[in-house]
Amino acid sequence: MERYGSRGRRVSGLLLALLLAAVWAASGVRSSAATADELEQSIQEKEEAISQAQEQKKQIQANISNIQAMVDELESTKDDLQAYVEQLDGNLAQIQSRISELKELIGEKETEIEETEQELEEAVAQEEAQYEAMKIRIQYSYERGAENILELLLTADSFGELLNRMGYIQQMNTYDQEQLVIYVKNKELVEACKEALEEEREVLEEAKAEVEEEEAGLETLIAEKEAQITSYQSDINNKEAAIAEYEADVAEQNSTIAALEAAAEAEKKQLEELNKPKVTYDGGMFQMPLASYKRVSSEYGYRVHPTLGVNKFHNGVDFAANSGTPIMAAYDGTVVGAAYNSSMGNYVMIDHGDGLYTIYMHASQLYVSSGQTVSKGETIAAVGSTGRSTGPHLHFSVRLNGEYVNPWNYLS
Hints:
By secondary structure, the protein is of the alpha+beta class. The protein is 59% helix and 16% strand. It contains six helices and twelve strands. It has helices spanning 5-29, 36-62, 67-74, 81-154, 159-234, 239-273, and strands at 295-298, 301-304, 311-314, 317-320, 326-328, 333-341, 345-353, 356-366, 373-374, 379-383, 393-400, 403-405. Strands 1, 4, 5, 6, 7, 8, 9, 10, 11 and 12 form a ten-stranded antiparallel β-sheet that branches. Strands 2-3 form a two-stranded antiparallel sheet.
């Protein structure tokens, strides 16, 4: 036994070094938290993500708007223009809400895809590194494992050392089994990541296609609305009634706006009585309410109405723009109105102080509410064609001390 003592110690040290090297190799690829249980949890999470993605695809397909049914339903209200406009705007709001939901889903899916791609990349790297480490370990065990184990046992100097060396061998076997389980689980995680990635990409493509279809439906309804309003107002038999209805609409607009102004002024007086600061206009120039627009489709002032054929006062500037184009606050102020009106459609009214107000009409969506403070350039709504509108545009008005004034006097 004596002649094997120093050699036995060298063999024992060699095997322990190999054991530690294998452990370090594995821990260097993935953190110590990558246990079999946690890999199993990751797999379950991916399976849940796959199920969720499959359900999302079903919901996208099931919730598509039935444009033809909407058009058919509008037939019963064509003789009452106001009822027709209100019903159609409800349909437009429904579709616009659907489009917003889908675009939000698209954003979520793009983020999830990035995260899953990163998880997949890490899982593949872990699988490859583990595979290489296990190949080296298996090759060594095949070539010299039995010889080294026998030599390790035969060179023990005492019964206690023999037991210790047997413990080392058992630890190595246990470690090999654990690494094999982790390797298998990691392969399962790779496959789960790949499947989840495929499902998420399918949801993304489905949502993008659905957005295009819903936007096409939106344009169909807007075109239907334009045709109906134009037909009604151009019909010589309806001419007098159409003019009277138009004037009633303008009067209703003015009444609504005047009421909002009166409420705002009353609130300012209350603030003065309480010695609280009020909104004041510092004389600065407004910014354009749209970041981009195709053209000015109708100027401020008197004009021949495009369908009525009579000279009428146009109290704002119309900016033609695509549906969904962001509408921005022209200047700092407080929102005093953000609602729907059958004539103005979805509108926002902002108090800039000292009797100066701006009004933004026909929006598809509103992003602010009454009482909210807004800054110059802040997005407050999106371009649409709600209310008495025959195409996507922003009607932008400016009022000073209860009267409409030319917006170009304030726009830089």
